[in-house]
Design goal:
Largest sheet: none
Number of helices: 4
Order of helices and strands: HHHH
CATH class: Mainly Alpha
CATH architecture: Orthogonal Bundle
Number of strands: 0
Strand content: under 5%
Shape: elongated
Number of domains: 1
Length: 73
């Protein structure tokens, strides 16, 4: 009997690759993380090292958490 779980994982990985194929690696990493992929899975899908994935996601998080500077005018 075929392992349905591994078939579903293959399909999920193929869909992830299709969705992120034209994205920058950092954008792809954050998108895949939002979809529930682990850093290890993202590294495999993007061809990056796992530590690089962590750094990309961390930098993206810092950019979104950074409050905009108020302008005095």
């Amino acid at each position: 009997m075929p392992d349905e779980s591994s078939d579903i994982n293959k399909i999920a990985n193929l869909l992830a690759l299709m969705v992120t194929q034209d994205m920058a690696r950092s954008t792809a990493a954050t998108t895949l993380q939002a979809c529930g992929f682990s850093n290890r899975e993202i590294a495999g899908l993007t061809g990056s090292a796992e530590n690089s994935v962590r750094a990309m996601i961390s930098q993206a998080r810092k950019k979104t958490e950074k409050p905009e500077k108020a302008t005095n005018g």
